[in-house]
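Lecture 7 notes: from sequence to structure.

We start with a single chain of 235 residues. Read the sequence below before looking at the structure.
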Amino acid sequence: MKYKRILLKLSGEALMGDKGFGIDQKRLMEYANEIKSAYNKGCQIAIVIGGGNIFRGIQAEKGGMDRVHGDYMGMLATVINSMAIQSALEGLGVQTRLQSAIKMEQICEPFIRRKAVRHLEKGRVVIFGAGTGNPYFTTDTAATLRAIEIEASVILKGTRVDGIYTADPEKDRTATKYNTIKFEEVYEKGLEVMDLTAFTLCKENKLPIIVFDMNKQGNLLSLIEGEKVGTLVEV
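Now the structure, written as tokens:
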């Protein structure tokens, strides 16, 4: 196994599946089974999931809502998604712990770094909800911050495309895929991998990122076993 401890970043939109909103139970269980496959190999897994399938603070701001208010609503949306993935995993017999950056004692633990690491060492999947607990920060930044704090080997960013391309492959058929790319190249070419705050944090802490297609069965397991899947962003 190449990666002993990973941070898996999933978008909230990915949970919609073919729906236009909310959580698709079929997609949720597909992801839970993929995570279980990696878990069964002994990989220590932490997860951060977005909330865009339920609510986005930035979109709310465009509609006239206060940005801070909207961002906090978005954080609550990530907790809903985190609870959904927790329930799906536990239904498959995977032990989990949900930690939140905003205190919600009835449904999850507060985020405590040492406790999170201990859970991972004991073989529990740890899910981090509510972003960083602060407005103006994305779940990409939350994922990067938590990955650094728990000393993860890599951030695995599960998307619906199979890596990073020279352009958006869904819009430009001539776009070509990078198998490996340096952080500096991503900056120079203006490629969108993560928001700039998250990406800079990864670069400064020498934390590699792998962007891959989470919807293809077996990809997550292949990655932790060292196979070349998706695009590796390295220092």
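The mean pLDDT is 94. Keep this in mind for problem set 3.
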